[in-house]
UniProtKB/TrEMBL annotation:
Keyword terms of this UniProt record: Cell wall biogenesis/degradation, Hydrolase
Enzyme class: hydrolase
UniProt keyword Cell wall biogenesis/degradation, yes or no: yes
Pfam families on file: Amidase_3, SH3_3
GO molecular function, one term: N-acetylmuramoyl-L-alanine amidase activity
EC number: 3.5.1.28
CDD domains: MurNAc-LAA (cd02696)
Organismal lineage: Bacteria, Bacillati, Bacillota, Bacilli, Bacillales
Domain of life of the source: Bacteria
Domain SH3b: 28-90, 102-166
InterPro entries reported for this sequence: MurNAc-LAA_cat, N-acetylmuramoyl_amidase_3, SH3-like_bac-type
Name of the featured protein: N-acetylmuramoyl-L-alanine amidase
Species per Swiss-Prot/TrEMBL record: Oceanobacillus luteolus
Record flagged with keyword Cell wall biogenesis/degradation: yes
């Protein structure tokens, strides 16, 4: 009987200890979603099942926090979301940081989800992620890249065109031209476009020269396309807003749960024979063919890569998407010439503008 009583006391103490450890200072904190689409998962893990979606501006209450995730409730059930995509409501962090002494240069992220890299270029590895509204101290620059200080005491590099930093004359001209073209050749206002950055997380996609992962280059290109389409007035939904895994069914589901006018999956290609190069556009249905025709024509008349043509393929992500859907292969990361072109900001801006013009032609 004495041993039984001791066991009961130990169980009670253990229960109390677990309760104290999982209850954090985040309990009761309210947040606003700071990205276009935020996945709600059943556990605090980027590979956990997605049980719902939140949209930019949605608010939630956090009841505990761990491993960079906050626990809330979704449809009456406990659920988890990544904290770095949330903005504390009533937070004055950004405004106070902006009022820092002018002797310390600071930049603010202007895109929904941005990679921070180990060096000034897309071929450097991703060391961290950030989201719209986050502010950093700038300590150096190299070309169109800015070196910033991180909260852990380390440094990283961020693309200047994804921040509010002062743009070079070339960048200013590109943005001005985009705005002018938007008014002169047409608008995408009233249309919803889903952009699908291929691969992500545990799925790196193709591996190119110098060990470049397709998933990283695809994500940066898709972010550029998204911003350009928004400049043309489109509502843009991105299937993934960071480096995490999504199944093909999940990607199609994101499109199918919205009134989507076009679905575009973005990829880069690879092949064992390094001389193979160029771009392809794939479709699966008649509606997809019409979309592919206009966008592929616009791409091939704009970018300096070899035209490998269009093709019909029964890809699952196209087959399961209700909206007209296409898959783009924007060059070979296993070909030295293609890779030298597709890693540049000029190429990605050309691709984005060509897709916008192709969409305008398609909707006409």
């Amino acid at each position: 009987m004495r041993n039984f009583g001791i066991g009961i006391i130990l169980i009670l103490l253990l229960t109390l200890f677990v309760h104290v450890e999982t209850t954090t200072a985040a309990s009761g904190q309210t947040y606003e979603v700071g990205v276009n689409i935020l996945h709600v998962r059943e556990a605090a893990d980027g590979d956990a099942d997605i049980i719902g979606l939140l949209q930019q501006g949605d608010k939630l209450t956090a009841f505990q926090e761990k491993y960079g995730w906050v626990q809330t409730y979704y449809a009456g059930e406990p659920a988890w979301v990544a904290k770095h995509y949330l903005i504390p409501t009533g937070s004055t962090t950004t405004s106070s940081q902006k009022s820092m002494s002018s002797a310390t240069a600071s930049i603010t992220v202007t895109e929904s989800s941005v990679n921070i890299r180990s060096g000034p270029g897309l071929d450097y590895r991703v060391v961290a992620g950030t989201s719209q509204g986050e502010t950093f101290n700038a300590i150096d620059h190299s070309g169109e890249w800015i070196q910033i200080s991180l909260s852990n005491g380390q440094t990283g590099w961020i693309a200047s065109w994804l921040t509010d930093s002062i743009q070079s004359p070339k960048e200013q001209k590109n943005r001005t031209n985009t705005a002018a073209q938007s008014s002169s050749i047409g608008s995408l206002s009233g249309y919803t476009i889903v952009l699908d950055a291929g691969h992500g997380g545990r799925d790196p996609g193709a591996i190119g020269l110098r060990g470049l992962y397709e998933k990283d280059l695809v994500y940066d290109t898709t972010s550029t396309i998204a911003q350009t389409l928004r400049n043309y007035g489109a509502t843009v939904i991105e299937t993934r807003t960071g480096d995490y895994y999504l199944s093909l069914d999940e990607r199609a589901s994101i499109s199918n749960t919205h009134y989507t006018d076009a679905f575009i999956s973005v990829h880069y290609n690879s092949f064992p024979v390094v001389s193979v190069q160029g771009i392809n556009t794939f479709y699966s249905s008649d509606a997809g063919y019409a979309l592919a025709k206009d966008i592929h024509s616009s791409l091939t008349s704009t970018v300096p890569l070899n035209n490998r043509g269009m093709g019909k393929e029964n890809y699952k992500v196209l087959r399961n998407t209700i909206a007209p859907a296409i898959l783009l292969e924007l060059g070979f990361i296993t070909n030295a010439y293609d890779l030298s072109i597709i890693q540049t900001a000029d190429y990605q801006n050309q691709v984005a503008d060509a897709i916008a013009k192709g969409l305008i032609q398609y909707f006409r």
